[in-house]
Amino acid sequence: MIASLPSPLLFAVFALAATAVVIASIKATRLADIIADRTQIGEAMAGGLILGGATSLAGVVVSVNAAASGDASYAFSNAVGGIAAQTLFLAIADLLHKRANLEHAAAEPANLFQAVMLIILLSIPLCAMSGPDIAYLGIHPASVLLFLVYLAGVRLAASVREDPMWRPVRTSDTRHDAPEDAEEAGHSVRGPALQFAGLVAIMGLGGWVISQAGGVFISRFGLSSSLVGAVITAVVTSLPEFVTTLVAVRRGALQLAVGGIIGGNTFDTLFLVAGDIAYRDGSLYHATGTNDAYWLATGLLMTAVLLAGLILRQREGPGRIGIESVLMMGIYLTALVTEIFA
């Protein structure tokens, strides 16, 4: 049905789906903050688990649909391109937090640990792509390992949040992770949770429409799968993370902002697991191209720079943002120019 639409209507449907996903994500951010307060799990963990997973749903739908249709490059680049784009969004959010470097103000051990886990998770598909082309029942063993490591990481991140072995130095610019309303802790979480689930359904439907439209862009306009996946659909399906990050920063929930991006990125690595399962022609990792590997390496490099910034905790840098944000913008811009012109 979407494939038969004329180009103007196709763009309109694509924009409408993207808008629906973004609006739902804005409302989900507020609810995630309320859920964090009422369950007392903390902003960083709420950002990484609740908000990060929900706002990534549209992206996983895109990768699964692309893999099921046999376009491995589209599925893979959408996943890793989204990780790079979302890390860039954190650098942009740093520009808007005028008081101090965002990575300094949002000091939180759980976010540091999640960044380390993300580097590990991104290294697994890189190893798979470089290793032998094997698959059992159409699934590469790396996908199973990726899923198990993710589960272990979630559990360990929770323990870091609940019982940290070290704490960051508090400064006048550090945002303390505490409920904005102490009375929220005594209220029921059922209502916000049901509303949150409804918004998740909207984001999932929007992701399906975006994936279908992206496939039409590839066939109708002769665009490469890696370009559409890493730059177009990845950025569009990552807009919820961008919006939720900006909203969280505006609300002063800085741990939620940083945790949402890093946690969302760790969840996005599972796009590759879902895509490998949906791709029935063998290993997804060996059906991709060098451009897809380049975006994977870009996401890995940007995450390493972000982790360095979280550890360094530079208070002020060029233009009152951290040097890590400047570097992340430069890395992403280089990757984008390379994808378009190389």
Automatic annotation (TrEMBL):
GO-annotated cellular components: membrane
Xref: Gene3D superfamilies: NCX, central ion-binding region
Localization per record: Membrane
Residue ranges constituting the Sodium/calcium exchanger membrane region domain according to the UniProt record: 10-128, 196-338
Entry keywords, A to Z: Membrane, Transmembrane, Transmembrane helix
Keyword Transmembrane attributed: yes
UniProt cross-references to InterPro entries, sorted A to Z: NaCa_Exmemb, NCX_ion-bd_dom_sf
Any Pfam family matching the protein: Na_Ca_ex
GO BP annotations, alphabetical order: transmembrane transport
Key word Transmembrane present: yes
Transmembrane segments: 6-26, 46-68, 74-92, 112-131, 137-158, 196-221, 227-249, 256-274, 294-312, 321-341
Membrane topology: Multi-pass membrane protein
Protein name: Cation:H+ antiporter
Species assigned in the record: Roseivivax lentus
